[in-house]
Amino acid sequence: MDTSNDTGDAGFLTIAAVCNELGITHRALRFYEGLGLVAPRRDRSRRLYSTADVDRLRTIVKLKPLGLSLREIREVIQSPGDGPFGLSQNLCEEAFNRLNEQRTAAEAGLALLADAGCRCSTTAPP
After folding, report:
1. Does 52 map to a domain?
2. Which of 64, 70, 82, 113 is the most exposed place for a label (fewest CB within 10 A)?
């Protein structure tokens, strides 16, 4: 993590720097803060994020595409399991099954559109 630019205080990043580094919006970051997933330091009206805050946010960003709820992500952050990304075996299996179900539903929807004659300029993945 580069703390040389956009630092509020030594070792702390501003909201703009964190959003830029992680590719998330200010609104998303404030939402996570509102849920208590991160607790940045305050300097007047500025939020200053520590390395630990940024690491927690990086974990959130990594877990979101797995289809985990924010409640599940909070549990992973608070009590990491032994599996990939800190998931417990049970949660890993649940996420895998949910994603498989979503893929099956998406493939069925794509087949329906194709059967109905819908043609798009994009091609389906192999």
Report:
1. yes
2. 82
Domain region containing 75? 13-115
User: What is the distance of C-alpha 20 from the center of its chain?
Assistant: 14
125 in any annotated domain: no
* SS3 per residue for the chain: CCCCCCECCCCCEEHHHHHHHHCCCHHHHHHHHHCCCCCCEEECCEEEECHHHHHHHHHHHHHHHHCCCHHHHHHHHHCCCCCHHHCCHHHHHHHHHHHHHHHHHHHHHHHHHHHCCCCCCCCCCC
Q: Report the C-alpha gap between 98 and 5 in whole angstroms.
A: 40
One-letter amino acid identity for 113? L
Task: Domain count for the chain, please give it.
Answer: 1
**In the predicted model, is pLDDT for residue 49 greater than 90?**
yes
